[in-house]
Amino acid sequence: MDFFRRLMSFRLSHPTLSGLWYAFLWMMIGAFVLSLLLQTGVLEEHNLTWHTYIVHSAALLGGGVTSGRRAGHKGWYQGSLTGLFYGIIILCISFLALDNSLSLTDLSLLLPAVLTGALGGMFGVNLRKKN
Length: 131
Hints:
- The protein is mostly helical.
- 79% of the residues lie in helices and 0% in strands.
- It has 6 helices and no strands.
- The protein has helices at 2-8, 15-40, 48-71, 75-98, 104-107, 110-127.
- α3 packs antiparallel against α4 (75-98), α3 (48-71) crosses α6 and α4 runs antiparallel to α6 (110-127).
- The longest helix is centred in the first third of the chain and has 26 residues, at 15-40.
- The radius of gyration is 16 Å and the shape is globular.
- 34% of the residues are buried.
């Protein structure tokens, strides 16, 4: 019984890993909502670009908040690491899935990812409860 209790209370202890976990969780939820909006016809495919940027920004902000809150200090650092790793993983997935070459415009999207994650990390440190 103790094994199941430990299994169900699984928690990532490293702030960057937990931030990445929550960022990808929010990204998957956002992608699911966007696909439902596309399926129902509420959203057109040519308007999808800005909505995708909004989903990624919200995911990065949420991941940065989580990593900053778990770290307790240097939230900008933990959040920017979360944003950097998130951006690199997304670029690798798009590079492999779409069979495109990496361009300077693709790499320039890493800077907003790092900045959004850092902003979320700063918010996350301030959300930590002081005892």
